[in-house]
Design a protein that fits this description.
The complex is a heterodimer of chains A (204) and B (474). Chain A has 204 residues and is α/β, with parallel strands linked by helices. Chain A has helices at 26-29, 49-52, 89-97, 109-116, 127-139, 167-174, 180-185, 188-197, and strands at 11-18, 74-76, 101-104, 122-124, 144-148, 153-156, 159-162. In chain A, a hairpin with a 2-residue loop joins strand 6 (153-156) and strand 7 (159-162). Chain A is globular. Chain B has 474 residues and is an alpha/beta fold. Chain B has two domains: 6-266, Aconitase, domain 3, CATH 3.30.499.10; 289-461, Aconitase, domain 3 (2-Layer Sandwich). In chain B, the strands form five sheets. Chain B has a five-stranded parallel beta sheet with strand order 5-4-3-6-7, sandwiched between helices. In chain B, strand 15 (342-345), helix 12 and strand 16 form a beta-alpha-beta unit. The longest helix of chain B has 17 residues, at 78-94. Chain B is globular. The chains are: A alpha/beta (204), B alpha/beta (474). Chains A and B meet through helix 6, helix 7 and helix 8 of A and strand 1, helix 2, helix 3, helix 5 and strand 8 of B. The structure holds iron/sulfur cluster. Residues 63-64, 108, 110, 129, 131, 347-348, 408, 411-412, 429-430 of chain B line the site of iron/sulfur cluster (SF4).
């Protein structure tokens, strides 16, 4: 079986962006009114919309508005990030804004699953480690962060810290089997065989 | 681990392989799509330049955003029109049949599949909608899926899944007068909890289930998800076959029917099948159930007192307190007499012909209470037409109900049919979450269609069994 088409995600590198706060739910990540849309395409600009803009569309203080973070791709958050509604629009909005990986204290399960479906690692570490990293990013917005998914380490500045990547997620990312579409598409022959064996399925 | 249940057999028949991530890859026999959850998946296919693998096994309808009054195009609501147009375009390009409102076949996705005979025993059926469990009433394995999974199915006609455990729920005895399938499922959810079914699929069995028609079985399977189970099913039997025989798929093709019947018989759970769990419920003890709170598990018999939060399990107390505050109900009292502003007869749980017939029976010769706005939203255009054939529309409109076009409507308030302010709604739908019917202060009381009819004419939650009979001149 060939799964060559799915990139393995062993490592993510780039600069960081800290979004502080516990229990940031998917409604905050992407407000429900932006879901009455037909593609995920433009969702990036609506990431954290209600936290970034007031009722008159004036910019509020939010890292996603700040110029020094506009090229960041590693989001650093706190506890229970992505809780609430299971909408896949949330990781889609983050990804389309430019996020390739999220480091946090903990993640809501469905959110982490939805991230995995996009090849986005959700890496965890303890409160202290996260807060130190967030402060470092604030002082070094251009500084490089290296996430080694396989080795479960994050390296930044002079420092390297241990992090956790859930085992199933790590295997899926590292072995390049996180994209179920590509994974399953490579089984064309077996799919056809199964279809043929079903009495109610007529040949295509 | 379960063995030789319908779930095991259908799973095995559809299993393509075990994937390296540990999940099984299953072939999908029928993929139903609607306007809200499919467009992004089509977008992802375009991004990757992948074609829809089996348009012939895919079927589209429009239900969530479709208006139930003026359906002239373009729809007045711009976002609704855009979603509709996108689905039209996606279906046309891929060669997928789309039951739009001009066809007379449009309706809620979980109503039209069964009524056209698309839904059959022993199939795997998926749709980007959690109430896909409805189709399990026919002995199909049917579950709701997310957007990435819709993409998987469009691209490969397969899905990656973990196998669940099987719990058999046996409902014994005969239902009392005025008690319906809805009351059975609300009782099950109340007893096992809204998360009781997590990790399970439910097999519904027993005399009280088997004596139900297909519509009642659908009401039960529909709300499996409210009980935490991603799928629920009833083994097919003569009632199932009788329904199928009369559908578009089989009415002119008795040979195909006979051929498939052998398969349908073969996938039924064996008498000595193994289950991971078995629960028995006495159906004869069930009375009409209404919810007092803001989750479908917060239900009680109409003659029972609303529970004191302190009397509940520790982890349920806080939600109960908040729910009672939101609903403005008093523990110790019954729900009978709770004032109603809106009566909604609709949704994929309870908007099929027998539901409307039974409600019309109650409404006949009566008037909707002055304080209530009442509406009937048939589950599909075919249900609507059949009801009109029988004159049910006249019974409802004469009583003061609004008789509308088919769609999800006030079940989730994605179109203009919404609660306003803190209105209380007697609803035949399946979810009473805060904000579900379009207003964050709205109050939803779930109940059977009979009970909605009774509430509509009295203006308050009413035990339908105590409503005096009206003599109607024939
Ligand atoms: S009627 Fe309600 S529950 Fe059923 S599909 Fe529509 S929105 Fe979902």
């Amino acid at each position: 079986m060939s799964t060559d088409e799915i990139p393995s995600v062993k490592q993510v590198s780039g600069s960081g962006i800290p979004v502080r706060g516990n229990d940031i739910d998917t409604d905050q990540i992407i407000p429900a009114r932006f879901m009455k849309v037909v593609t995920f395409d433009g969702l990036g600009e609506f990431a954290f919309f209600d936290l970034r803009f007031d009722d008159e569309d004036n910019e509020k203080d939010h890292p996603f508005n700040e110029p020094q973070y506009q090229d960041a791709n590693v989001l650093v958050v706190n506890a229970n990030f992505g809780c609430g509604s299971s909408r896949e629009h949330a990781p889609q909005a983050l990804m389309r804004w430019g996020i390739d990986a999220v480091i946090g204290e903990s993640f809501a399960e469905i959110f982490a699953g939805n991230c995995l479906a996009l090849g986005i690692p959700t890496v965890t570490a303890d409160t202290e480690t996260i807060e130190e990293l967030q402060s470092w990013v604030e002082e070094n917005p251009d500084g490089d962060i290296d996430i080694d998914v396989a080795a479960e380490t994050v390296t930044y500045g002079e420092k390297s810290v241990d992090v956790t990547v859930n085992e199933a997620q790590r295997k899926a990312l590292v072995d390049g089997i996180w994209d179920t579409t590509a994974l399953m598409k490579s089984n064309t022959e077996s799919i056809a065989k199964t279809a043929e064996s079903l009495p109610y399925v007529e040949s295509a | 681990m379960s063995k030789n249940t319908l779930y095991d057999k259908v799973w095995d028949h559809h299993k393509v392989t075990t994937l390296p991530n540990g999940q099984d890859q299953l072939f999908v026999g029928l993929h139903l799509i609607h306007e809200v959850t499919s467009p992004q998946a089509f977008g992802m296919l375009r991004e990757r330049d992948i074609e829809v693998a089996r348009p012939d096994l895919t079927h589209a309808t429009v239900d969530h955003i479709v208006p139930t009054d003026d359906r002239d195009r373009p729809f007045k609501n711009e976002a609704a029109e855009e979603m509709m147009a996108e689905l039209e375009e996606n279906a046309r390009k891929a060669g997928i049949q789309f039951d739009d409102p001009t066809t007379g076949n449009q309706g809620i996705v979980h109503v039209i599949g069964p009524e056209q005979g698309l839904t059959q025993p022993g199939m795997t059926i998926v749709c980007g909608d959690s109430h896909t469990s409805t189709h399990g009433a026919f002995g199909a394995l049917a579950f709701g899926i997310g957007t990435s999974q819709i993409r998987d199915v469009l691209a490969t006609q397969t899905i990656a899944m973990d196998k669940k455990k099987v719990r058999k729920i046996e409902v014994t005895g005969e239902l009392g007068e005025g008690v319906t399938a809805k009351d059975i499922i609300l009782t099950i959810i109340r007893k096992l909890g809204t998360d009781g079914g997590v990790g399970y699929v439910y097999e519904y069995a027993g005399e009280a289930i088997e004596s139900l028609g297909m519509e009642g079985r659908m009401s039960i399977c529909n709300m499996s998800i409210e009980g935490g189970a991603r799928a629920g099913y009833v083994n097919p039997d003569e009632t199932t076959y009788k329904w199928l025989k009369e559908t578009d798929e089989f009415k002119d093709d008795p040979e195909r029917f006979d051929e498939l019947k052998a398969y349908w018989e073969s996938i039924k759970s064996d008498d000595d099948a193994d289950y991971d769990d078995v629960v028995t419920i006495d159906g004869s003890a069930i009375e009409p159930v209404v919810t007092w709170g803001t989750t479908p598990g917060q239900g009680i018999g109409i003659s029972e007192p609303i529970p004191e939060p302190e009397s509940l399990a520790a982890d349920k107390q806080e939600t109960a307190r908040r729910a009672q505050e939101h609903m403005r109900v008093t523990p110790g009292e019954t729900m009978a007499g709770y004032d109603i502003d809106v009566a909604f007869l609709g949704s994929c749980t309870n908007a099929r012909l027998p539901d409307l017939r039974a409600a019309a029976e109650i409404v006949k010769g009566r008037q909707v209470d002055d304080s209530v706005r009442a509406m009937v939203v048939p589950g599909s255009q075919r249900v609507k037409a059949a009801a009109e054939q029988e004159g049910l529309d006249e019974i409802f409109t004469e009583a003061g109900f609004d008789w509308r076009d088919a769609g999800c409507s006030m079940c989730l308030g994605m179109n203009d049919d919404q609660l306003v302010g803190d209105e209380a709604c007697a609803s035949s739908s399946n979810r009473n979450f805060v904000g579900r019917q379009g207003s964050k202060d709205g109050r939803t009381v779930l109940m059977s269609p009979l009970m909605v009819a009774a509430a509509a004419v009295t203006g308050e939650v009413t035990d339908v069994r105590e409503l005096p009979k009206v003599e109607v001149e024939q």
